[in-house]
Amino acid sequence: MAELAYRRILLKLSGEALAGPNGYGIDDDVLLRFAREICDVHGLGVEMAVVIGGGNIFRGGRGRTHGVERATADYMGMLATIMNALALQAAIEANGVQTRVLSALEIKEVAEPYIRRRATRHLEKGRVVIFAAGTGNPFFTTDTAASLRAVEVGAEILMKATKVDGVYDADPMVNTGAKRYSELTYLEVLSQKLKIMDSTAISLCMDNDLPVLVFDMLVEGNLKRAVGGQPIGTVVRGGAT
């Protein structure tokens, strides 16, 4: 393995990815594979933080179809992320790596409250830190939480794990001629309304010069390739492309 390109990263995992082919809940095979990938990279000496979504259980926007107001639905989504975080914690620790779940909502029986200095200290001690409950506020996505936490703990890059191998100018599942970008600027993402992350998340990364890598986590070994600096996925950063 070549010299590491990054020593501290934040990995954004979607809840939908944990559902696997079932589309709902937690697929044990996917969970265990993600945990192994995280442990492999941790074993290289990378300090790792993870933000996990909850869309495999409940997504805030879905609450409207059930007559639930948006703020309440978003809190329900935050609780779903805590369930996913605990499952990921158990899977990682089964591989012998220490973890801590820090929650933006206080649930002291199962998770530590989020405190920035505490999170940083856990990373310095070699623990995988899993951030749950988003930002703790409704109307903000877990992508925004990932951007915020990455900046707060001093991550060198935000790695967004998806089910496709980067960012395209059209949906590659529909348009076989869709072009994949190897690199984009923050402004290009915003002006072209590319569906990488919401505009608040991208703007926060832009304001703090935090690069974003969008890559396919379903390809085994991709996370290790990413921390090694191999050219996979799409990188979003400042400057001209």
Key words describing this protein structure:
two-stranded antiparallel sheet, nine-stranded mixed β-sheet, 36% helix, Carbamate kinase, 241 residues, 8 helices, alpha/beta, 11 strands
**Structural class of the secondary elements?**
alpha/beta
- Pick out the low-confidence regions: none
Mean pLDDT over the residues: 92
CATH C-level name: Alpha Beta
Our estimate of the beta-strand percent is 15-25%
Helix content: 25-40%
* Neighbour order of strands in the largest sheet: 4-3-5-2-1-6-10-11-9
Quickly count the domains: 1
Q: Supply the CATH architecture.
A: 3-Layer(aba) Sandwich
Q: What is the CATH superfamily classification?
A: Acetylglutamate kinase-like
Tell me the number of strands: 11
Order of helices and strands: EHHEHEEHEHEEEEHHEHE
- How many DSSP H or I helices? 8
Radius of gyration: 17 Å
- Which term fits the overall shape? globular
Topology record:
Elements (H helix, E strand, L loop, with lengths): L7 E6 L1 H5 L8 H15 L4 E6 L17 H24 L5 E5 L8 E2 L2 H9 L3 E5 L9 H12 L3 E6 L4 E2 L11 E2 L1 E3 H6 L7 H9 L4 E5 L5 H6 L6 E4 L4
Parallel strand pairs: 1-2, 1-6, 2-5, 3-4, 3-5, 6-10, 9-11
Antiparallel strand pairs: 7-8, 10-11
Summarize the structure.
The chain has 241 residues and is of the alpha/beta class. The chain is 36% helix and 19% strand.
